[in-house]
Amino acid sequence: MDYGRPAAQFMAQDVATLAEPYIGKKITVQGVVEGRDFTDPNDAVLILEHGISCHFGKFARMAQAYADGETGWVDGFLVQCKPGKIVIRPALGRDPTAHFEPLRPTP
Fold this sequence. Notes:
The structure is a single chain. The protein is mostly beta strands. It has one domain (8-93): CATH 2.40.50.140. The protein is built from two helices and six strands, in the order E-H-E-E-E-H-E-E. The protein has a five-stranded mixed β-barrel with strand order 2-3-4-6-5. Strand 1 (8-11), helix 1 and strand 2 (26-37) form a beta-alpha-beta unit. The radius of gyration is 12 Å and the shape is globular.
């Protein structure tokens, strides 16, 4: 899923307050993994802190590569952006050594 460069990059704690203008666009999120959900074999979900659900679809192995408590980087399309309910679909893991310059809240 390489649809070009992300429109914006975010730390997980900033997505709910800063990312709404990027709904429908590719973003990158860095956050701590809180869990995974493999109940639907066609939709593996990686759950990041702050209620961020990253839907990897059938790429369950990619979602399984992350451990709870680990920092992960995810690229994907933002489809919902409400506090506690942020959805990225489709999503893929991102190389942690790739350039990452997150947007920050203005002071």
